[in-house]
Amino acid sequence: VAHCKEFFFCGQEPFVADEYIERLAWRTPGGGSRGGEAFDPKRLLEEFVNHIQELQVMDERIQRKVEKLEQQCQKEAKEFAKKVQELQKSNQVAFQHFQELDEHISYVATKVCHLGDQLEGVNTPRQRAVEAQKLMKYFNEFLDGELKSDVFTNSEKIKEAADIIQKLHLIAQELPFDSLMGFCCYPLSSPGKYHDLECQLIQEFTSAQRRGEISRMREVAAVLLHFKGYSHCVDVYIKQCQEGAFLRNDVFEDAAILCQRVNKQVGEIFSNPETVLAKLIQNIFEVKLQSYVKDQLEEHRKSDAEQYLKNLYDLYTRTTNLSSKLMEFNLGTDKQTFLSKLIKAIFISYLENYIEVEIGYLKSRSAMILQRYYDSKNHQKRSIGTGGIQDLKERLRQRTNLPLGPSIDTHGETFLSQEVVVNLLQETKQAFERCHRLSDPSDLPKNAFRIFSMLVEFLCTEHIDYALETGLAGIPSSDSKNANLYFLDVVHQANTIFHLFDKQFNDHLMPLISSSPKLSECLQKKKDIIEQMEVKLDMGIDTLNCMIGQMKHILAAEQKKTDFKPEDENNVLIQYTNACVKVCGYVRKQVEKIRNSMDGKNVDTVLMEFGVRFHRLIYEHLQQYSYSCMGGMLAICDVAEYRKCAKDFKIALVLQLFDTLHALCNLLVVAPDNLKQVCSGEQLANLDKNILHSFVQLRVDYRSARLARHFS
Fold first, then answer.
1. DSSP-assigned letter for residue 157
2. Alpha-carbon distance 630 to 565, whole Å?
């Protein structure tokens, strides 16, 4: 059995029956598990039977042991339960004792409290009687006129003396004067003694402040808190704080430094530091700042509007900046409203009519800038045409005379100045900045619009519009020789200036009106200005007539009839005519000038119109000559050069017109037998037959029967 027990419990792993049988068979001789041994089933069966018997014996022993342990466990459980019951009974007894003790303690505490109330009821009248006795003693000293008590004679006990006199003063004031007691107490109720002590305390506070004794100042301020002269103590403190604080030229910086210093100190002295600090700030604003602002502004208010506005803007800005710094301090519940009222009290008389001063100054300053410019040019401004956009459009449609009358000579002057524009925009920019700072929020959009209107009047109307009108009047007639076309220079400068105007509109005006009904009004005004200027630029299309006129003069002067019908057909050495060279050079200059003078769609519009007129001129010019075979080749070379020039326009229509003209010129040199084929080509097939015929007629051999027969 011992061997079986050892074999059964040999492993620490969980019991597995298959492994157990396998181990048993392996250990049995003849079990067949060992190598080289013959299998003996009888021997193995005998071993299994013996082993089963051993297991049965071992099972019986273990079962008996388990039963014994169960009986022992049940016995111990009963004993433990009995012990727990006994402990519960003991706990209940202890809890009852605790409740009795708690009730007894509560009873004793109630008795103690009652006894304390009784003692207090007895002690309080006693203390009052003692205090009354002391007051009566001090009262007798006042009646006798001899203050012998140490509390009155010792200067270090001024706090106790102040408390006594304060009480006697209140008692004396409650007694009627017509009674005997009231008459006797009159010395105490009269201001004399009370105020003498107040003055003494304030003097002590002042001396302590000069010595820098914060603790003594706090003690005296605490005593004075119950006296009527407490506010005078605060006033003295504020006055002495400012002594020597405003010695520099920058009163705003001095004020900020003073308030920072006092803010750190006032909480250690007074029980209501926010009230004292607020009173100091109010005193600084109402006395120092208001006086300083008045001195700075009244000096220039009527004599120098520019300096007045600059000073007003600067002073208001510095005051609001100071207010922002003071917002960091504790000044009570609504410090924002408190500081705003102080600022308003200083500047209200100056802000009420600010915009009128601003507009008046801007108007006079802008007029002076313009007049100074025209005086430097020795130019007397002419009256320009008036009228709305519809009137301008009607003038454009009818091509009526320009408002300045007959053509005038501007001597190449555009009457536009970058310096003038920069000065006007700078003045307006400063006006917008002042308007933003100084205007009431409800009046800001309206005031900004008035400033914008002044800019429109002097920059757009009096300067740009006047220059355009003058430029229009200076456009020479189409038959003028060697005419200088300065209108494009005017357009170029006006375009540049308007971009600057538009930038200021977006950068400085829009933020001021973006959320108000004035926005649509300003946008409409700007739109009207743009449309009015575009109409006048369209009226300047007469400049193109002058260009074409100049080109006509070049062609008339340089083109010779012999160019296209040379005397010696075999001795032509040029690739294109001199007239073509000069016209192409002139056109390229004008195209470049147009591109530099305009932008956007205006460039393409003007170049298209110029290109169409250029084509018509060359077409009509070629119709004036007769062409030999060699002359026709030279004409084709000229048109090819004109076509190269037309490419600079970068307008598809213009290039197409010159391509067609080049194809038409081929009719001047093509063999008679090929005329019909050429006329039916892609570029000429859609043209009117009369146009084709007109070009064929320009050939010197047109009257030959053969050519006429082939073209018929």
1. G
2. 7
CA distance 537 to 367: 25
Beta bridge partners of 627: 699
User: What is the residue whose two structure tokens read 């040379």?
Assistant: 566
C-beta separation of 177 from 186 below 8 A: yes
How does pLDDT run across 269-311, given as a tens digit for each residue? Answer: 887 888 888 888 989 998 889 999 998 898 888 889 999 999 9
pLDDT tens, 138-151? 555 555 555 555 55
pTM higher than the cut 0.70: no
Which stretches of 145-213 are DSSP H helices?
A: 150-153, 158-174, 180-184, 186-189, 191-211
What three-state secondary structure class fits 76?
Answer: helix
| Domain segments of the chain as ranges | 17-30+46-144, 559-710
- Alpha-carbon distance of 672 to 709, in angstroms, equals 9
Retrieve residue 104's tokens.
């007894």
The answer to whether 540 touches 487, Cβ cutoff 8 Å, is yes
Identify which of 617, 704, 634 has the alpha carbon closest to the alpha carbon of residue 668: 634
Whether the CB-CB separation of 602 and 491 falls below 8 Å is answered with: no
- Tens digits of per-residue pLDDT, 352-373? 999 999 999 999 999 999 999 9
Task: Kindly report the CATH number that applies to the domain delimited by 559-710.
Answer: 1.20.58
Contacts of 394 (CB under 8 A, 6+ apart): none
